[in-house]
Here is the input.
Amino acid sequence: MASTLITNIGELVTNDPDAARDGRGLLGAIEDAALVVEGAHVAWTGRAADAPPADERVDAGGRAVLPGFVDSHSHLVFAGDRAQEFAARMAGTPYAAGGIRTTVAATRAATDEQLTSHVAHLVEEMRRQGTTTVEIKSGYGLTVRDEARSLAIARQFTEETTFLGAHVVPDGDPAAYVDLVTGPMLEAARPHARWIDVFCERGAFDGDQARAILRAGADAGLRGRLHANQLTYGPGVRLAAELGLAAVDHCTFLSDDDVAALRDSGTIATLLPGVEFSTRQPYPDARRLIDAGVRVALASDCNPGSCFTSSVPLCIALAVREMGMTPAEAVHAATYRGAEALDRDDVGALVPGRRADFMVLDAPSHVHLAYRPGVPLVAQTWIGGRPA
Ligand code: NIG
Ligand code: FE
Here is the structure.
């Protein structure tokens, strides 16, 4: 198998959990480092001076190398935009879940080709900003046919596909819609989806509905994740903890009981600060969660309504500036924790055996991602051991 030595790395972020346990820091960073890639995987990491020989050699020029971002929350299958809704928000209109229906109408009217090329464009935009794994949800179809086709399209770009038929009730009777989601829609979605998600929120689905939908998903073999506590306090976070879900996302409005439930269950709290930026809501309190012993991930939530950014570097900068995270915690949350939020142990760290998914930064260290906000610092993204 062909091997490549990437050497002269100013700072190599490994996220090696053993390094963290040995007191070598959360990021397991190595200075003056090198990395050997064999095929699609990492074969060796360490000091450049100790590097083994390889077939090819790449000079990183003293720049930083980090694991690729694992963006565990996005809604990329949609048509149209809601720029006017954003402008109205910035003039004082509050965000409401009902705006989702505008995108549903545009998505239903789009062809498969239009939707596919739009997802391709957004995935490429993400890749240029260092994202190497992305989760993609359905949720703007909301008919049996449109949810199945949204997932079939998403599946062309990622293994991490999530059925979100329970995004909002499109029209009619909510109870009848829940029956549709847990019946024929789930049946049609199942072959294309790994996960099932519910928007458990005022104006969307309540705790009992979310529980019924997640249970039906589990019976069909889909693992659960949840949108919860974005707009107000509610039952979603505690439900996610009770069910032992991999992750619960948003977590903006949390009671002490919610925080304790997250800590005790080990369910990851995925924070999505692009949403608070784009809705002018208060940011979630990452410091409170981390200090309580909760595992925190960061993701983009790229979607046309509450947050139309594909940029994890922006989310890192916001998390550091507005949510009390250190640069190291934010980078770890967007890589290692993102992988954990998707139950993946093959990505999110640069240790032997994991996938060689990484980025080269046009900067000497990870700190620059927050220190130089808004600057496109990702010089190169490698996926599966090759430049993407
Ligand atoms: O994660 N919360 C539900 N879904 C998106 C918003 C969708 C929309 O407004 O179109 C979110 O914020
Ligand atoms: Fe979302």
About this structure: The chain has two domains: 3-68+349-387, 70-341.
